[in-house]
User: Fold this.
Amino acid sequence: MSRTVLREALRTLTSKGLIESRPRVGTRVRPKRAWNLLDVDVLDWYSRVAEPMTFALKLQEMREMIEPYAASLAAASHTDETFYALAAAHAAMVAARNVDEWVRADLQFHLSVLTACSNELLIPLGTLIERTLEAQLRLNAKRADVFNASLAEHTAVFEAIRDRDAAAAHAAMAGLLGVTRGRIEA
Assistant:
């Protein structure tokens, strides 16, 4: 490997907070608590080396903190455009004929909920976790008796958002994520 390539790789890892380089000290890996796991690349790399069950539960905890509230916001503040995207994702879930179609639609459903909540600070969280969430959704679909076993729970979220019932949307999303947690822990 050339020095230029090595230098660029070290610069990238430094910019992402994984390593630090100092004159007369050298290059060292920073402690995990100093890593920026809210960087898309770092999160993706970490998800590949972390203990799978531990990582899945940490991702699930994050989702349980954010998604029920996002669903209640979506119910209260969705626009026609954001609701149309959510409706299209839900329709794709209903029409899914295999795991791959289901996972794509399920991922789009959850990203659409974040978009429909009309909070520009929450929307990027979907982009951040998109790759790791897709892997988790695929695993959960395969663990279920049938790939679309959680369609009823997704429909409850969709209908509560459609009806602009924030409390019901929050409760339905919390229930859906409870089912997801059960599959992870099983």
The first strand starts at residue 19 and ends at 22. The domain at 40-185 is CATH 1.20.120.530 (Four Helix Bundle (Hemerythrin (Met), subunit A)).
